[in-house]
Amino acid sequence: MISTQNTDIIPENWYNVVPDLPEPMPPPRDNDMHKSSIELLNRILPKKVIEQEFTFKKYERIPDEVIELYEQIGRPTPLVRAKNLERYLNYKGKIYYKFEGATVTGSHKINTAIPQAYYAANEGIKEVTTETGAGQWGTATALASSMNGMKSKVFMVNVSYQQKPLRKTVMNLYGSEVVPSPSPLTPTGRKFLSDSPNHPGSLGIAISEAVEYALENNIRYLLGSVMNSVITHQSIIGLETQKQLEIAGEEAEVLIGCVGGGSNFGGFVFPIIRDGKERTIISSTAREVPKFSKGKYKYDYVDNAGILPSIKMYSLGSDFVPESIYAGGLRYHGASPSLSLLVKNGTVKSEEIGEKQVIEALRVFANTQGIVAAPESGHALASAINYVKSNQGERKTIVVNVSGHGLLDMSIFNRG
After folding, report:
1. Which of 154, 142, 187, 161 is nearest to 307 (CA)?
2. Same domain for 115 and 99?
């Protein structure tokens, strides 16, 4: 295990993949509701986040204050060789996992919540809002806001609000007000409640509600995933991993992560693959949300109401409402434009994993490595196990991003 006490592992700069993409990333498009994307974004996002969203600079300096907060929440996170898992699978190569569950909020989401909240507070903002699915992003927003002296309101997808009461408790503890979405607080929420009072909600609906609430109350909205500025902040995962591998004298030959909107995956993979070396790269998604196999690569709305600009990505449609699956963080209808480009050109392979296989992978990982991983991370672990079983003769070094812990998601082991 590489020591988390070595804060020199934390990079001084984030990495922006846009200049290194194989082709230009299609720009966002204005929509009918708001004619100017930039005008809309200027009303809801911190100015520095907008700048980072559209920059072509390859590196972005991390403010000293943000690095200090990163240290306070547990960065750098550990990179661990999973020797027990190797023995269990009889794998002759090496398996490492980057454990983002070691942060105080238990997932990678805090990596972008901290800088976004920092930038908002520097502008004199007193309150922020956002959405959350499984609760990891809402938890990160709540803590980052509190650390920067701001209030927060989180619109939580209703089915997760009902299934994960402990997530709500943690967000409340961090000072956030948590609202089940759809809610009566916004036009979008009232529309869906009038059609279905017990609507399960979706991330697309919750995003619409948070954006509407930000616009109506002149506060700022924090981005949880998908957009390039978020993936830039999340690049701290891959940058740390790369440095930790160098210390261990290793080189990643297979990279595996789960994909909801694409932020943990992009943040983990993009800094490592910038050298152009040939690797196997696998994005693991939920079979119940088959965005890469059944979605279309097209311009589509980020949110259900079509308030935010449309972006070109793999999407099942902004009106897609997935079933109440066990991994709430993977319920999003689309994927980030940068990841979508790399899936389209074949750089990144995609694999869809179902609930039964995910739960078995979580059990194996818990019994071999002692880590109760998040349901979302269970997809990455299942794909890693699949890879090993299909390539028993190899001796490659596999690195898996375990994007969070699952200690507040234990109910999934009692399903059906």
Report:
1. 187
2. no
Residue 291 identity? K
Helix (H) or strand (E) holding 249, with range, is none
DSSP 87-117: HHHT-SSEEEEEEGGGSTTSBTTHHHHHHHH
Query: What's the pLDDT at 35?
Result: 54
Which pTM value belongs to this model? 0.93
Q: Is residue 228 part of a domain?
A: no
One-letter amino acid identity for 157? V
Cα 193 to Cα 39, 117, 206, distances in angstroms: 30, 31, 13
Q: Which of 221, 253, 278 is a domain's end point?
A: 221
Structural domain range at position 408: 74-107+234-414
For residue 161, CA distances in Å to 128, 130, 154, 158, 178 come to 20, 14, 11, 5, 9
95 shares its domain with 116 = no
Which residue type occupies 332?
Answer: Y
**pLDDT on residue 5:** 53
Give the Cα-Cα-Cα angle 257, 330, 27 (nearest 5 degrees): 80
Do 191 and 214 sit in the same domain of this protein?
Answer: yes
Q: Verify that 43 and 133 share a domain, yes or no.
A: yes
- Residue 69 resides in a domain: no
Whether residue 242 sits in one domain with residue 280? yes
Q: Are 292 and 216 in contact (CB under 8 A)?
A: no
Omega before 76 within 30 of 0, i.e. cis: yes
- Among the listed residues 75, 88, 171, the one whose alpha carbon sits nearest the alpha carbon of residue 131: 171
What pLDDT, in 10s, does the model give residues 217-252? Answer: 999 999 988 899 999 999 999 999 999 999 999 999
Residues lower than pLDDT 70 in the chain: 1-5, 31-37, 324-328, 415-416
Q: Verify that 37 and 182 share a domain, yes or no.
A: yes
Q: Say if 165 falls within a structural domain.
A: yes
Number of separate domains in the chain: 2
Q: For the domain that residue 54 is a member of, what is the CATH number?
A: 3.40.50.1100
Cα angle: 350, vertex 353, 356; to 5 degrees: 170
Residue 320: strand, helix, or coil: coil
For 137-172, give one letter per residue: b (16+ CB within 10 A) or e.
bbbbbbbbbbbbebbbbbbbbbbbbebbeebbebbe
Same domain, 174 and 54: yes
Alpha carbon distance 354, 234 (integer Å):
26
Residue 92 and residue 195 in one domain: no
